[in-house]
User: Fold this.
Amino acid sequence: MVILGREILVLLGFSLFTALVTWPYVTRLRDAVVDKGDPYLMAWIMWWDYHATFTNPLHLFDANVFYPLKYSLAFSEHSYGLALLFFPLYALGLRPLTVQTIALFFGFAVSGYGAFRLGRTLTGSTAVGWVSGIIFAFVPYRFNMMSQVVYVFSPWMPLVFEALVLFARERNRKRAMYLGCAFFMNGLTTITWFTFTLIPFVLFAAILLTRYRIWREREFWLRAGVALGAAVVALLPFMVPYVLASRLYGFKRTIEEIKANSALPTHWLAVENRNKLWNRMGEGVFEGWKFKLFPGLLPILFSLAALFGGPRPLRESASKPSARICLPRLDALIVALFALSLLAIGFDHSTAFYNFFDNFTSERTLALLTIAIVVRLCIAYPLFLNAVRPNLIETIRSDHRSDAFWLGSILAALGFCFSLGWNFFFYRICYQLLPMFKSMRVVTRGAMLTYLGLALLSGLGVQRLAERISRRYPRFQARHVFIAACVLLLLEFNSAPLRIERGDPFPDATTLRLKQTPMRGGIVYLPAGGDNNYRYMLRAADHAKPLIVGTSGFNSPFEDKIENLTRSGQISDELMALLEFVPASYLVIANNVVPPDRVPEYQAFLRRQLSSGRLRFINRFGTGDDLYAVVKTEPEAKSEAVLPFNGKLRDWSSSIQEDPVTLLGPLSLTQKVYRFHLVTSGDMPRYEPFKKDLEEITRGVIVGSDGQEQQLAKNFQHFVEMWMSPESSTKSLGLLNESQFVDKLIANAGITVSQQERQALIDALASGKETRASVLLKIVDDPRVVQKEQNRSLVLLHYFAYLRRNPDDPPDGNLRGFNLWVSEQERHPDPNKLTTAFRESIEYEKFREKY
Assistant:
């Protein structure tokens, strides 16, 4: 009981540190999230683990998302080992999001506790354990993973190494059971951490076997084999579904995906922006915003004290002559492999030398070179190293370096190699040889091994500093140095006040209705894609009905097709056919997240399906979610209310006149009208004339009708022809001759054309092969004009759509705001960010309140 109480106090200590470093997170455990994305996904995963365990455990992986696909839980981390620890909270009635929030908080604390135990076990020092635990718990990169609690929650990573070293030191049944349990829980909790720890686990085991001279001990192999074998067998039901899903749906991370998530060494100088001390570090690093791997300054300095501090041991005698006989041949092999590696890197995967380097690739050559060097070092160190030990084996066996040093060094080196991903041959070899590496996309997460290694080395470094300081200054005891180190580490890792949001833990009215509604098929929410899918996943944990859309590590082909059919432009009847095929029982239109410019397309699609009897409106719930039944799947569903919008078909002109936001719907057309005004006048269009012209062009074209794009293009061409006709009131271009006309349009467009292009247009006009209208259209659609005006037109159209004015009208009075937005789009093209900013502006809110 004393030991248990002591361990609980340690865990409470790390919980207190977590509360301080992440304040005010602990005060909002009911609904705190760092964003409304992956936390919602993780909340659903953990809930499903609990729900399936007590309802249908044999079908754990056939989750209620991506209906009707099998093994949908295997599309991402199943996180069963994480959820298992929090089953009592579900039983008490806590909401799925609340359980996820609590799990995230304790993810920091128990990860620190796991590293504490490892550091204490390796060194016998509680103080080293505290240093190691603080570093591993609060290293800045961990905050970068706060959206995904399964990666923050990593206590089993250090505990599996603790179990290994304990068993190597004393090979009894109790410790063998601990080894098997830790290995099992590591795999049951996070497949990513399980995969990354396999290679260092094997290497550290080899070092322990060498240090304790137990390679030939039968009891070690028997008990370790039984314990690990039982763990592997127990893990199979949680691993096989991934293999089946991969084969069934062709899931495999492409090399391009891995490359996009592979860091460079310089990325270790970029810092997670939640860190209060170093948050601007790495701004000048290439893609530093993407890979924030800096572990903090103190862990590096403390680790250096462990690596390079201490007295140099006495030189030992050289290895036996019999072991050195093969060295010349081995050295020759190393030189040959080194030369071959240089060529392989240069000719990698080429057809040179009869495809030799297409088979003997750089990663294979470098792997053979590494093996040859390690074998050479195990036999004898080269003379130029001036080593104190005869070879690597004797170095490992010596007491000069501890178990903690070797494990820390292995983890630090391998984690760094893993983080480089495809930019280093080591990961490429792992990808080829170990199937589990083919399923990982964010390979930079391997950096967590480095952080655990630095945590151990830092503990050793502080221990060495404490010894030196206490010897030189007796009044300073070692514990004072450790306390100071821990305080400084907490100050360096501080993220308080942490930026958090309030999530949506409670189900809305639509969700409650779906929960009570029996159904033969699944549910589709629109709009699908982006952040919307995360909310749908969270609500699936509330209604527990089959969900067709959603998001995960891999996506459903049905989800992808629904997104493609509804992303932009006309929503065709193909979507309705897909809903009937899947089959879907109900369609939910989340009106509050439908972009205003997409409302006409959605309503046009719904009108067509309602008039044909393929959809049936049920009711509107909560904040404006409309529920429709798919009649083919649910023919007995009854309508409960009147359709909340006009069910008659409408044309684009009347829609734009009623709500100018609609002009962003046919965006390609409106941008073309913008370029027309620019090319004909030399200036950007003004709001009223532009809106009048657009209404004329779109008049009579039914929103969402078949052939809509062709009809709009035809109307635009007719508009241009009428504008250029002699009867038109516009005379500014009509008085120019052919040369002057072409030159004027080119000048207005602001592009540079060759003399040949210019003359060809003039000659075509003179010969009658082209009309003035057709030449005008050619310049309007010229790719150079399109590219040059892409961002300017997009920003201006948002002014017209949402603010219903020109960008230099009051309250602006000038184009400063307009130019800022254009510059922002040129630096970081993001139309969604632009739309969100205008939609959430105070000026647009006033229009919405008024109308």
